[in-house]
Amino acid sequence: MKTFFIEMSKKDLKKLHQNIWEEIYVDALLTIDDKRYDIKIGLRGNQLRKRKKKSYHIIFQQPYLVEGHHEIHLNAEYNDPSLMRNKLSFDFFQQIGVLAPSSKHIQLAINDKYEGIYLAIESFDQYYLKRRNLPEGSIYYATNDDANFSLYTPAGTLKKSLMDGYTTKYLFQGAEHLKKLLVIINTYPKEKFGEEMRNVMDIEKYLLWLAGVVCTQNFDGFIHNYALYHNSKTQLFEISPWDYDGSWGRNLHGEPLDLEFVPIRGYNTLTARLLENEQYKQMYRKILEKILQEYFIPSNIQPQIEEMQYAILPHYKEDPYINYKKKTFKNEKTFILQFIEKRNRFLMEQLEILT
């Protein structure tokens, strides 16, 4: 496991930690494997900014790109006793054919103070596309719960703008594509909706993503914690997951979730409308059934869990912010595998709802 060494002035470090709700970035130096990089660094995330163990957003300055990356995210994984739910989720989405960021566990030190185990996550941006030889395209982040594909907020009030809930990460051909998508979702009648959606969204990839969210039981994933990519070659939207520490049987606070908490149909306006269409509903059923039979099973996930635990375990006790016992960490393997087995059985029984 690599160690990231970050150096910055004491004044700048104090500024970051005293102004946790402000989007402040300071100059710093990052060293990895004896290679040094000039960076900007700021805090990231929302729920965990008050915690002692912070999550960070790194932007490379000199050089501008490092192994094809301009940005990386360092997640503290503070409320996840396994320290692996995010990575397990991203790897799972990649397995089933959904665009998802790659990630790896690292150790972090800031000004010679050991900060513990982190998950380094690649940014979903234009450079993500280049590294995978994907066509250029606009990228939008779903930055709050208003990104529910509706004209109304989750509280039921009319949005001020179609773009409420979204932050533009990279603009390639203008935001009209996203506005058009939202108009179709919210205004087209049932008889025109199914046909028109084929022209604006990759339906199969959306349903693969939906199945992934339903399996991993990420409650926030339907109206938050995702990115939209408009593929300039196909002219279709694709969707990618983000921030999945609240998954695999626990919520974002690390508390266990009931198996029934996330329904098989998921929730958000787009999903509801797609599953009203008989063709798309049956497509989703087949996709989900295949995933439940081949991917979302203990025998597929167990080797990944064991590989991550093997890498993390030698450094586990050194993390100054982990206040639970090593036994708790080890037991998460059993917890996650039992969740998969029970959730799989539950969803298999629920497939009848989609017939």
Summarize the structure.
The chain has helices spanning 10-18, 85-96, 126-131, 176-187, 190-197, 203-216, 269-274, 278-294, 298-316, 326-350, and strands spanning 3-7, 25-32, 35-43, 56-62, 71-75, 103-110, 113-122, 139-142, 166-170, 226-231, 236-241. By secondary structure, the protein is α+β, with helices and mostly antiparallel strands.
Structural class: alpha+beta
Strand fraction equals: 15-25%
Helix-residue proportion: 25-40%
Number of helices: 10
Principal-axes shape call = globular
Mean pLDDT: 95
Termini gap: 47 Å
Number of domains: 2
How many distinct beta strands? 11
* Largest sheet data: 7 strands, mixed, barrel
Poorly predicted tracts of residues: none
| Radius of gyration over all CA atoms, rounded | 21 Å
Question: What is the N-to-C succession of helices and strands?
Answer: EHEEEEHEEHEEHHHEEHHHH
Q: Order of strands side by side in the largest beta sheet?
A: 1-2-3-4-5-7-6
Task: Characterise the protein shown here.
- It comes from Ureibacillus thermophilus.
- Keywords: Capsid protein, Virion.
- InterPro entries: Spore_coat_CotH_CotH2/3/7.
- This is Spore coat protein.
- This protein is of the alpha+beta class and 355 residues long.
- The protein folds into two domains: 3-122, no CATH class; 133-296 and 343-354, no CATH class.
- Helices cover 36% and strands 21% of the residues.
- The protein has ten helices and eleven strands.
- It has helices at residues 10-18, 85-96, 126-131, 176-187, 190-197, 203-216, 269-274, 278-294, 298-316, 326-350, and strands at residues 3-7, 25-32, 35-43, 56-62, 71-75, 103-110, 113-122, 139-142, 166-170, 226-231, 236-241.
- The strands form two sheets. The protein has a seven-stranded mixed barrel with strand order 1-2-3-4-5-7-6. The chain has a four-stranded antiparallel β-sheet with strand order 9-8-10-11.
- A hairpin with a 2-residue loop joins strand 2 (25-32) and strand 3 (35-43).
- The longest helix is centred in the last third of the chain and has 25 residues, at 326-350.
- The chain is globular.
- The model has no long low-confidence stretch (mean pLDDT 95).
